[in-house]
Amino acid sequence: MSENSLQDLDMVTCTAPVNIAVIKYWGKRDEDLILPVNASLSVTLHQDHLKTTTTIACSRSFHKDCIWLNGKEQDISHPRLQSCLQEIRRLAYRRQNTGDPASDVNSVYNKVHICSVNNFPTAAGLASSAAGYACLVYTLSQLFNVEGELSGVARQGSGSACRSLYGGFVQWKLGEQSDGKDSIAEQVASELYWPELRVLILVVSAEQKSVGSTSGMHTSVETSQLLKYRADAVVPGRMEKMIRAILLRDFTTFGELTMKDSNQFHAICLDTYPPIFYLNNISHQIISLVHRYNQYYGETRVAYTFDAGPNAVIYSLHDHLPEFVEVVRHFFPPEVDKEEFFKGLPVCPVDLSEEMIRDINMKPTPNGIRYIISTKAGPGPCVVEDPKLHLLGADGLPKKSAV
Ligand code: DP6
User: Fold this and answer.
1) What pLDDT shows up at residue 289?
2) pLDDT tens, position by position, 290-337
3) The domain 10-191+381-402 is classified under which CATH number: 3.40.50.2300, 3.30.230.10, 2.40.10.10, 1.20.272.10?
C-alpha cells in the first residue's frame, strides 16, 4: 500500500445508460421536486456505445464532499446534486435506524468523493445529464446499501434521469401526489423484448449552444397554450398506444407516434414566447429524408426524434438499417474516414438503387452530419466489479486516466 492510501476507504464504481424519449417530457408542475406536466416514455440505449461511469468513495479522512466531472472539479453545492446526495443519505440513515444489519454504520456519516466520466463527447449534445444523475444515484445507493425505488431520487437530479434507472422500454408515470412519491419510472419491457429494434444517432454539426432543457421548459410552461393541450388531451392516449405498440412489436405505430411526438414537442417550442429553436437546417433535411424514404417504400421503415438540440435519433429495424445508413451517407457525404464517420454496432454495406436516389430527390449536403453512432436498446445501471476500473485512486483522488 502506498503512503497516501487510506485505510478505511470504501469505494464503488457503476455505469448508467443514456435514454432517448419517444414520448417527450416537456414541462414541470413542480420545479423543486421535478414533477412533470405529462408522462413520458423512452428507450434505454446500450452502454457499449453510450454510458456514464461513476466512482464514489467515502472515508473518515475526507473533509468535504467533492465531485469531478469529465476531469474537472465541479461545485458540489449545486441544488440538484445536493437533493440527490441528501435523499440517499436520508434513506441510508433511515435504514440504519431500523437496525438493518446490512447497513454500514460509519460510511453514511462520511464525506464522499465522486468522479464521473462519459464514454461519448459531451459536446455531441447527447442526453448526458440523464445518464449522469442516474449513475450518481445508483452508485451512491450501492455505496450506502440503499435498496428499493431509486427513480424518484434520480428524478430530483434531472427529470429524464429517472428513466435511465431501467433498461429497455421505460415509462415515467405522471403521478398525482403533491410529494411526487408516485411520479416514478417503470420498465414497460426489457431490452431483450424487441431485439430487432435499432437506433442511430446522427450527430449534426451544431454551431451555437441552444437553450437548456430546464429553462426552455420553464418558459414553455409559462407561455405555451399548446403545452397544456398536449398534456391534457394528447399524451395520455399516446402513452397507451405507444405501450401497446411496443408490446406488439408494431414498428409502424411505434415509428409514427415517435415522429409525431417529436414534432409536437418542437411545435411547443415554437409556441413558446419568445420561441425556442432546437432544430437547424440539417435537422429539417433529415426529417424530409426520412419521410421521402418511407414514402418510397410506402411504409414506415425509419422514424426520427429530436431532443433539445439539432441531433437526430433514428429508430429502425435490423433488416432496414443498412440501407438507411447508406442513404444517410449518400445525402450527407462525409469528408472524414469511414471509421470516424460510423461508430458502434456494425452494419453490412449495401448498394443503393438509382431509382431510389432519384425518387428521394434531395440535393446532397456534404458534411451535414459529423458522425453516426449505431446502437440498440440496452440494460439499466450496472456495478463494475473490476477494481482496476475505479476512477479514484487509493488516495481517494481522481486517477490520471479519469482526467
Ligand atoms: C427534450 O431531463 O434534461 O430530452 O428535468 O430540467 O433536468 P430537467 O430536464 P431534462 O429534459 C429532457 C427533455 C427532453 C425530453 C425527454 O428526455 O423526455
Assistant:
1) 98
2) 999 999 999 999 999 999 999 999 999 999 999 999 999 999 999 877
3) 3.30.230.10
The half-sphere exposure of 47 on its side-chain side, counting CA atoms within 13 A, is 25
Q: What is the pLDDT of residues 47-99, one digit of tens each?
A: 999 999 999 999 999 999 999 998 899 999 999 999 999 999 999 988 877 76
Ligand 1 centroid to 27 CA: how many Å?
A: 9
- Ligand 1 pocket, CB under 6 A: 21, 24-25, 34, 40, 127, 129, 158-160, 213-214, 307-308
Between CA 267 and CA 277 the distance in angstroms is: 10
Domains 10-191+381-402 and 197-375 share a fold: no
Class in CATH terms, 197-375: alpha beta
Q: Residue 349: what residue type? A: P
Please report, for the chain, the start and end positions of each structural domain, with discontinuous segments joined by +: 10-191+381-402, 197-375
Query: What is the Å distance from ligand 1's center to 385 Cα?
Result: 31
Q: Nine-digit cell at 87?
A: 435523499
| Cα–Cα dist 328/125, whole Å | 20
Ligand 1 center to residue 213 CA distance, Å? 6
